[in-house]
Amino acid sequence: MDRSFTAIAQTEKLRARLRAELETVGGRHDDPRLYGGEPGDPGLCGGPGSVSWMIHADLASVAVAGPAAVLMEVLHPSVMHGVYTQSSYRTQPARRARATLGFVLGTTFGSTPGATQLVERVKSMHGRVSGTRADGVGYRALDPELIGWVHTCIPWAIMTAYERTRRPLSRAEKDRYLTEQARVGRMGGAAWVPETVSELEDYVARMRPHLAMNEQTVDFLGFLVGRTYDGEGDLPAPTRAERVDAELGLVAAMALMPEWARRMTGTYQSPWVDRAVLAPVLRARAAAVRWAIPELPCVVMARERADGGLQARTWVHVR
């Protein structure tokens, strides 16, 4: 009996430690000012019956897709230049990671006013970003084409991660998901974003000639896996083991993306390695996140708001 209690205690201790590590990087996402609100408000993406709620409630899919989504975004040289020269990703990597995850969760599960304000804040920040690339091409972060590309990379990667690590999605579910997410993209400043799988495939094919690796992208990729991060920011410098783990995580995440993107970024592996190594790694990482955080506070709060019961409860932050 004592051994059983000890095993349970050790398991819960491990779960708590993993949860704390995930929250250090990703945040808690339990702000009642964002996720509370008027009873019955479904938010921007359709509420509890939407595909967006189903997919984004699975933190594991969002988490394992993150590195691939970010790397795909910055394959556009204008996006990369803006991030490289005017972002705080080097000095505040944890804050940037929390903000990125917070945008996905906030626009999905936040109240309609709260999510709208979140989108407007991001637009305001992007409105101050502009510049000229090394090849002489000027850009604005609020260029509808750039907003459209950045927006599209996120649901594309997350949807694929959900399929690979949770369950297959029907074509109709994918189309519904992209349509639900398109509202956020247009609110963010995109003139057009794909709303079906067919549109997504055509759009990616049209964007492909505009994507490339350059010196900034190579340096940024090195930062993502810890090779060029010296710990001067808000996270400690990674150990050698952590760098190896980060690189494996990035390569596994990029296995969600097309072969041409993997070859472009140097993350391509053979089909055998995909099946024998990367797919199991991706599933194992997703399983670990689901075990540590089976349900996010924001999902619970949003569901109660949408169902009309949130105002009857008092939410207390547990830190």
Describe what is shown at a glance.
The chain has helices spanning 2-26, 32-35, 51-56, 59-73, 77-86, 93-109, 112-126, 144-165, 171-187, 197-207, 215-224, 240-254, 259-265, 271-292, 297-306; strands at 130-132, 138-140. The protein contains 15 helices and 2 strands.
What characteristic shape results from the CA principal axes?
Answer: globular
Percent in helix = 55-70%
Work out the helix count. Answer: 15
User: Overall pLDDT, averaged?
Assistant: 92
Low-pLDDT stretches are 310-319
Terminal residue distance: 32 Å
Question: What does the largest sheet look like?
Answer: 2 strands, antiparallel
- Judged by helices, strands and strand pairing, the structural class is mainly alpha
SSE pattern, N- to C-terminal? HHHHHHHEEHHHHHHHH
